[in-house]
Task: inverse folding
């Protein structure tokens, strides 16, 4: 059964997280490991693509404050709505706040990182179509989480909470055996911190209207821990559970790993040289690879267990037959099946595997 502490233990072992004890309040905190840093960067990229690059409306990233970016966007759009602004802000959690978060029973993703980032997006809209856009926004954001998930039904929307005026708020939750986790907050509001009421005045034909705003807020720590928990699985192998991370191929820190069976020194050296050559070809195509020089010292099963637990979707198996025929075996993490691919075709074939979602 899925257990949070078991997941964290695996993530520590495979370089996603480093667990430490806060020196002041003696609570558990996490720092990113080297593999976790790669995962976090991929998450940031996918979030940016979904919010900024792939939107039908124009969205402007903010580096110098929301007000300045909003004014630029408003002027560039000739006061015509809609347009959006995004911002990634650093947050250092106070130790008092962190201690209080860990006082309660259960798991709170927010409570485990002292340093965090907040991913925000604001879309400014004409009041006449703001509610319709907000409902569409809810669907799109939930679909984004489901797209990368091994269990899409895990993600649900809460009931809409009405606030002052016609403001509305809703959350996206992820359901786990230990409880529900808040992963993203959404809202429709009439006021935005950092933007004055006069700035929100927009022309609609011959009259002035007050723009409304649909917003989204995600914490990077929540995004990371949720992705790891969502990917965790324990399929049965030889009558025993075998933990692994089924990370989506777009998010996986490494897309391809390499395995070389043990053998004579001359054979292993040739296979290692071939693995390095293939690895270089894949990296030229911007495919992140894990090539460990010492891997041949372990059994193939030990190598695959390590790579599966690191969430690597595919493994290239090279053996003596590869040197004779040029045929390598491409093993899938999710199915454990192997298909034969000629080494000269591997770069193009792998590119196709990772081209689409």
Result:
């Amino acid at each position: 059964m899925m257990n949070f502490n078991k997941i964290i233990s695996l993530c520590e072992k495979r370089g996603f997280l480093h667990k430490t004890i806060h020196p002041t309040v003696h609570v558990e905190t996490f720092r990113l490991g080297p593999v976790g840093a790669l995962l976090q960067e991929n998450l940031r990229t996918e979030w940016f693509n979904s919010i900024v690059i792939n939107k039908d409306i124009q969205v402007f990233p903010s580096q110098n404050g929301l007000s300045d970016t909003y004014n630029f966007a408003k002027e560039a759009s000739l006061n015509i709505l809609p347009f959006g602004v995004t911002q990634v802000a650093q947050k250092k959690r106070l130790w008092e706040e962190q201690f209080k978060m860990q006082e309660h029973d259960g798991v709170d993703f927010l409570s485990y990182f002292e340093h965090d980032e907040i991913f925000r997006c604001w879309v400014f809209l004409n009041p006449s179509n703001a509610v319709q856009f907000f409902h569409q926004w809810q669907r799109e954001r939930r679909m984004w989480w489901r797209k990368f998930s091994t269990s899409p039904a895990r993600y649900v929307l809460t009931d809409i909470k009405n606030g002052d005026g016609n403001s509305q708020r809703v959350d996206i939750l992820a359901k786990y055996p230990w409880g529900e986790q808040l992963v993203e907050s959404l809202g429709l509001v009439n006021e935005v911190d950092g933007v004055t009421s006069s700035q929100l005045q927009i022309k609609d034909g011959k009259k002035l209207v007050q723009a409304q705003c649909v917003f989204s807020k995600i914490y990077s720590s929540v995004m990371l821990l949720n992705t790891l928990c969502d990917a965790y699985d324990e399929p049965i192998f030889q009558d025993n559970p075998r933990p692994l991370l089924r990370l989506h191929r777009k998010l996986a820190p490494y897309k391809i790993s390499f395995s070389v069976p043990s053998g004579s020194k001359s054979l292993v050296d040739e296979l290692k040289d071939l693995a390095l050559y293939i690895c270089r070809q894949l990296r030229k195509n911007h495919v992140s690879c894990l090539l460990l020089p010492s891997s041949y010292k372990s059994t193939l099963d030990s190598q695959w267990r390590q790579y599966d637990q690191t969430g690597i979707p595919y493994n290239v198996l090279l053996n003596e037959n590869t040197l004779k025929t040029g045929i390598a075996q491409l093993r899938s993490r999710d199915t454990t099946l192997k298909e034969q691919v000629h080494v000269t075709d591997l770069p193009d074939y792998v590119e196709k595997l990772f081209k689409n979602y």
